């Protein structure tokens, strides 16, 4: 479902899956795993942005597994950037292109400047740089593809890994059943709330609802200024499930409410999948399909459920702004 | 360096300016497209001045105040990757904070130019000069040189862009200068005209490596163990080629701007017939030259050799100048803990450059002026005397409190 909203009337949004461009700008040559949702995040963003695009990819599985020497899948220009440099790489390219166009050294046109960074790069080491990019005056988009681990480095926990998950940095053992005790960072909302100049911040899942992610890319690129999209990418290798269930898990991440699906457009919150005051799918249905939670006891499922309920029932902006009753602004 | 009677057209004016001001003038003259700043003393003066150029409408560039040195250098690197001429800089621990980016800018072969206002590394905090910050990149694939005066800083920055951007080189270049002694001291500087600089420095063209939709390249993909050696070899060859490119850049610079850089890499003061020579870099050269001249008048056969370009290292020039000298002493504004003979950094490069020569001078090392401590004329004289004295120790700390 695409709403015709004033600010996106020139964004050429896809009205349904049959309207999606057939041309592939991210094609064969990559070495991603079967069922890799992050690879779909790559393929779909560049499809939505089109050929007049330059891309940097921060170190991460979508660098290491994705872009091998002499078998690059990228039809558009692509360049590696450092783990913490996603935001800065986009700023550098956008600034350079702007200066060259102004000085008449390259033709004036709209060139989409996109960086993709993983959860480890964008959410931890590159958080400062991401913030810097969100403060910049340039038209750029940072896509945070979040498969909740350092997925190419052996599946280590990041600051965006779901609470309690087993990773190589957080194995379960007789002394410590739960080693990863950090609650997932609220990254997209942090960027939106901390950078009031940013016109567009969204979360998304590449497959659910269909075309939503590609249209969010189009919206981000059309609205101007620095923008950010945070996707939840089920990862068969890191999350320990059969590759055929990637889409199922993505859909469940949204439907259980553990990953809130929304966009913030010019300061206005729009829920893509609105779970306020609604019966949500129990989060256990999402967690128990993944081997990384195989050590969970009833109390762990209940704890995660209680936190998800709190997000939706008690937060000032459900799923987004973690300020609870007492500070709540009376309408 | 002496400037000959110039034709009026190549110089715009003469102005009293600091070392960092002179670099800012050069950055303006090269019509930089993008520059990124982050504050740390003492290099910051260059960004202060560039920011004023932007505020006053004197420079058409994208100016970004970054969120840290790592981002600052990444911004410069990626601006360079789309074909924009970029400038950054830092000092001391700020330079180290950018180190990851500094490494990849070299391996990406992007001709970013950076100013290093040399500063002691923390801890303890100190603003004063030490060369360890800049010297840390000596093996990474950066061109690295030191300026001793504000005029030389301006000239060297223009030359750095020319050499870095040459298609035969395409390496980033660091122009280093001593914190305080040059960043903040004023000298008279002849500022060239924009037109003359345009004659010297062609438009930056990254050719078929630029990031643009009309040139869909993939830059720096993952090679694993397959291709690293071949790529390193290309980088290695570029560094070797840069020697010739530097030489021709100076020849042309001399001819356009009537300057007298006899040898691009080193600057000799009374070295030719000297028995005893001190070697140094940066602002120590100013005092050392003056003492060398004084001692000559007293009939002592001493000389001073300043190293301007440290990477590429002037191997042949050093060999030629020092092989037949009896005693060589090095003024080191850096430290190397636990290194061979417990000597500081530049001694090792100098000794290895001389190793294959028939006649070796005796080489001694002076660790001096760390953290910005002044190197006095009296101390330089003492270093000359110790160098000439065959009984003096291999390594000495000069000016150290007892």
Plain-language structure description:
- The complex is a heterodimer of chains A (331) and B (402).
- By secondary structure, chain A is of the alpha/beta class.
- Chain A has a single domain (6-313), classed as Rossmann fold (3-Layer(aba) Sandwich), CATH 3.40.50.970.
- Chain A has helices at residues 37-49, 61-64, 86-102, 119-125, 127-135, 187-194, 212-223, 236-239, 246-255, 284-287, 298-313; strands at 53-58, 78-81, 112-118, 140-146, 200-204, 226-232, 262-265, 268-271.
- Chain A is globular.
- Chain B is built from 13 helices and 16 strands.
- In chain B, helix 10 (284-297) crosses helix 13.
- Chain B has helices at residues 19-29, 45-56, 69-81, 92-97, 99-107, 132-135, 150-165, 194-200, 228-257, 284-297, 315-322, 345-354, 377-388; strands spanning 11-18, 34-37, 62-65, 86-90, 113-118, 143-146, 173-178, 186-192, 218-219, 266-269, 276-280, 302-307, 309-311, 327-332, 362-368, 395-398.
- The relative contact order of chain B is 0.12.
- Chain B has two domains: 8-257, Rossmann fold, CATH 3.40.50.970; 266-398, Rossmann fold, CATH 3.40.50.920.
- Chains A and B meet through strand 1, strand 2, helix 3 and helix 5 of A and helix 3, helix 5 and strand 9 of B.
CATH class of chain A: Alpha Beta
Which segments of chain A are poorly predicted (pLDDT under 50) over 5 or more consecutive residues?
Answer: none
Contiguous low-pLDDT stretches of chain B (5 residues minimum) are none
* End-to-end Cα distance of chain A: 30 Å
Full CATH superfamily name of chain A: Thiamin diphosphate (ThDP)-binding fold, Pyr/PP domains
Provide the β-strand percentage band of chain B. 15-25%
CATH homologous superfamily assignment of the largest domain in chain B: Thiamin diphosphate (ThDP)-binding fold, Pyr/PP domains
How many separate domains make up the residues of chain A?
A: 1
Largest interface: A-B, 47 and 45 residues
The CATH architecture classification of chain A is 3-Layer(aba) Sandwich
Q: End-to-end span of chain B in angstroms?
A: 38 Å
CATH architecture of the largest domain in chain B: 3-Layer(aba) Sandwich
Count of discrete domains of chain B: 2
Report the sheet with the most strands of chain A, covering strand number, pairing sense and barrel closure.
8 strands, mixed
Shape of chain B: globular
Strand tally of chain B: 16
Order of helices and strands of chain B: EHEHEHEHHEHEHEEHEHEEHEEHEHEHE
H/E topology pattern of chain A: HEHEHEHHEHEHEHHEEHH
């Amino acid at each position: 479902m695409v709403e015709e909203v004033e600010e996106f009337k020139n964004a050429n949004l896809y009205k349904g899956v049959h309207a999606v461009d057939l041309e592939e700008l991210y094609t064969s040559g990559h070495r991603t795993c079967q069922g890799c949702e992050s690879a779909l995040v790559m393929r779909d963003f560049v499809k939505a942005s089109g050929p007049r695009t330059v891309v940097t990819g921060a170190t991460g599985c979508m660098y290491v597994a994705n872009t091998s020497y002499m078998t690059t899948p990228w039809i558009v220009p692509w360049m590696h950037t450092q783990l913490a440099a996603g935001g800065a790489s986009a700023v550098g390219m956008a600034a350079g292109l702007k200066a060259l166009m102004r000085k008449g050294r390259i033709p004036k046109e709209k060139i989409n400047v996109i960086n993709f960074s993983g959860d480890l790069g964008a959410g931890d080491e590159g958080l400062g740089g991401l913030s810097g990019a969100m403060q910049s005056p340039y038209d750029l988009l940072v896509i945070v593809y979040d498969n909740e681990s350092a997925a190419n480095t052996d599946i280590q926990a990041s600051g965006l890994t779901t609470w309690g998950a087993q990773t190589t940095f957080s194995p379960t053992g007789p002394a410590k059943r739960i080693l990863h005790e950090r609650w997932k960072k609220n990254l997209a909302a942090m960027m939106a709330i901390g950078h009031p100049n940013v016109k567009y911040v969204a979360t998304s899942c590449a497959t659910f609802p269909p075309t939503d992610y590609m249209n969010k890319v189009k919206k981000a690129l059309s609205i101007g200024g620095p923008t950010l999209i945070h996707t939840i990418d089920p990862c068969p290798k890191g999350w320990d499930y059969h590759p055929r269930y990637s889409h199922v898990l993505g859909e469940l991440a949204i439907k259980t409410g553990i990953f809130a699906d929304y966009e913030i457009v010019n300061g206005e919150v729009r829920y893509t999948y609105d779970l306020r005051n609604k019966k949500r799918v129990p989060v256990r249905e999402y967690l128990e399909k993944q081997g990384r939670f195989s050590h969970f006891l009833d109390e762990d499922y209940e704890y995660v459920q209680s936190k998800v309920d709190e997000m939706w029932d008690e937060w000032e902006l459900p799923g987004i702004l973690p300020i609870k009753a007492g500070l709540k602004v009376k309408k | 360096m002496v400037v000959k009677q110039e034709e009026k057209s190549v110089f715009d004016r003469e102005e009293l300016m600091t070392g960092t001001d002179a670099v800012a003038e050069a950055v303006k003259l090269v019509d930089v497209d993008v520059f990124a700043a982050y504050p740390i003393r003492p290099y910051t003066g260059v960004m202060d001045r560039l920011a004023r150029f932007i505020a006053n409408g004197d420079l058409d560039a994208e100016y970004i105040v970054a969120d840290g040195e790592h981002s600052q250098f990444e911004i410069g690197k990626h601006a360079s990757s789309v074909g924009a001429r970029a400038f950054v800089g830092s000092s001391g621990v700020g330079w180290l904070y950018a180190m990851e980016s500094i490494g990849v800018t070299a391996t990406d072969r992007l001709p970013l130019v950076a100013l290093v206002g040399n500063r002691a590394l923390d801890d303890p905090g100190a603003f004063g000069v030490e060369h360890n910050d800049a010297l840390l990149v000596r093996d990474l694939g950066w061109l690295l040189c030191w300026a001793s005066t504000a005029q030389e800083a301006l000239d060297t920055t223009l030359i750095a862009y020319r050499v870095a951007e040459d298609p035969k080189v395409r390496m980033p270049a660091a122009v280093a200068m001593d914190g305080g002694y040059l960043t903040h001291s004023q000298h008279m500087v002849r500022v060239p005209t924009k037109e003359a600089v345009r004659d010297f420095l062609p438009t930056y063209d990254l050719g078929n490596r630029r990031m643009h939709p009309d040139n869909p390249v993939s830059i720096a993909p993952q090679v694993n163990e397959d291709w690293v050696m071949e790529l390193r070899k290309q980088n290695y060859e570029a560094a070797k080629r840069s020697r010739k490119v530097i030489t021709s850049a100076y020849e042309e610079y001399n001819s356009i701007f009537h300057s007298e850089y006899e040898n691009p890499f080193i600057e000799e003061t009374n070295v030719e017939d000297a028995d005893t020579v001190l070697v140094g870099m940066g602002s120590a050269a100013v005092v050392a030259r003056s003492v060398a001249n004084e001692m000559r008048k007293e009939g002592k056969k001493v000389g001073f050799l300043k190293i301007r370009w440290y990477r590429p290292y002037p191997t042949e020039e050093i060999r030629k100048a020092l092989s037949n000298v009896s005693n060589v002493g090095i003024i080191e504004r850096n430290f190397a803990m636990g290194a061979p003979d417990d000597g500081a950094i530049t001694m090792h490069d100098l000794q290895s450059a001389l190793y294959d020569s028939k006649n070796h001078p005796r080489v001694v090392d002076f660790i001096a002026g760390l953290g910005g401590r002044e190197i006095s004329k009296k101390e330089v004289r003492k270093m000359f005397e110790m160098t000439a004295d065959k009984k003096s120790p291999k390594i000495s700390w000069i000016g150290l409190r007892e």
